[in-house]
Amino acid sequence: MRLSHFLNVTLAAAGVIKTQQQIPIVGNVVPDAGMEVAQSKAKDVTGDSLAMVGIHFTSSYAVASVRYPNGTVRYLARVSGDAGYIDLMSRFVDTWRLGGLPDPQKRLKRHECIKALLGSSKDDTTGIPLPQDVDTLTTIMKDMRKVVEPELNAPMPNVAITVPRMPEYLQEEFQEPLRLSGLESARAKLERIDTPVYQESNAAYAGLGYGLCRAALEDCSSNSQVNEHDNVLYLNFDNSSFSAGVMALQNAYQDHVMYTYATNVDLGWWNLPVFEAPRAKFWAQIHAMITTALEGWAEYKEPIIRVMLVGDHGADEELAEVVHQVMLGKCVADAYAVDRSVNSEEVTYLAARGASEMEWHMDGLRYTRQTELQRSRERMLDYEGDE
Q: pTM of the predicted model, to two decimals?
């Protein structure tokens, strides 16, 4: 039985290799303001001041999406990274090149130890950010702001940021470039935390419509009953990297839900050989990475319920066949779902869309709580005045 027989919701990704040029074009800004999706097709969107912009910084480009209060989602722009940006992001995500991960608490302690040992040297990326890294990230953020704000017809100081999986001490390095580019992470500002970003895997999960509360202003982040545990095989086939991992989560806001994970920056779509023999070797490496991720999860003796394929090339037919071959005989549910809930034209914006959705829910919840608190104070003052 082929993989396509299992599909019950859509596969996120771009077209097949044969129809695309396999050469990176860097430093290019591509406005894409005409796209609208979601519940409303209305052009007169109200409440723009409450709109939330999500920006996804991938390993080779950045994309922006906006979520309006009425549910309309608009894809705004894509900015391709230059060679310096691709090198920087490759260094950041390459942290997870080596196989499976220990449990979340041990993983955090390990990273804190690394950070403590290396200190705040300006010569490494775990202390004070390297000046050239700050410049590189600031440049792409400024480029994004230049193209997005005219489309919004409004400034966008607060944004929801999502990035590929990397240690928290590297996530924090996005803070200074955000400040220098005139932007601010809504999450870091409003939650008063050092980490300014959402995990790409969580944002993509939310972008597919999972892990969010049914009621718009319900507290999704603390509600563990949004979903029962979703055991998800997460695969991201992008231009300059391939990632595989297994996560178990009940809502999109849960951190440290990835139990096994690895990235290989030598297995991106740009690295896919044309000739048969090296091409077969390439896919064998992809097969091995997926197998390793599943083997790391096997000790939990719980079936994989969902396979989430994302990235610019997650819908590649050869990748789908490899996934099918790996899943045969593995610990998966009899009717596991392969997510295809967005079409190939939309997949590029999937995580950006999810980040804006996540932050819009949280921002609205914070606003509601602040309003209720203010009204409570006013009632108290009125009561004291009456006495």
A: 0.72
